[in-house]
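Meet the record:
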Amino acid sequence: MSEREQRSKERIYAVDFGTSNSLLAAATPEATTAAIALDPAATDATVLKSIVYTPSAGTWFFGANAVNEYGEHGADGRLFRSLKKYLPDGGFTGPKALLGKGIRSGVSSKDGGSS
């Protein structure tokens, strides 16, 4: 493989992890690509809502799928939004750590209480 062919296969990925939405793009030494589709359930598949939903241990949904599944499960479980704002916190180790600090996820449990 020539050096030019090898360089054309090199890709650099750029992630825009936003508070509300996230995007992924790529570039080669010759060109940039359009935004990469991340969320087939979204109206615009290149925009991934920065939302995570877990109805039970070991089950996770992301983006538009998270919003849809949250509704399908009757708002039971945990819905995490705006996780980016917690990343600078040195004690942040994941969504469960937020709950341990008394930070509410904004999810209502079936009994009507906030979690």
User: Anything to note?
Assistant: The mean pLDDT is 79. The radius of gyration is 18 Å. The first strand starts at residue 12 and ends at 17. The chain has one domain: 3-100.
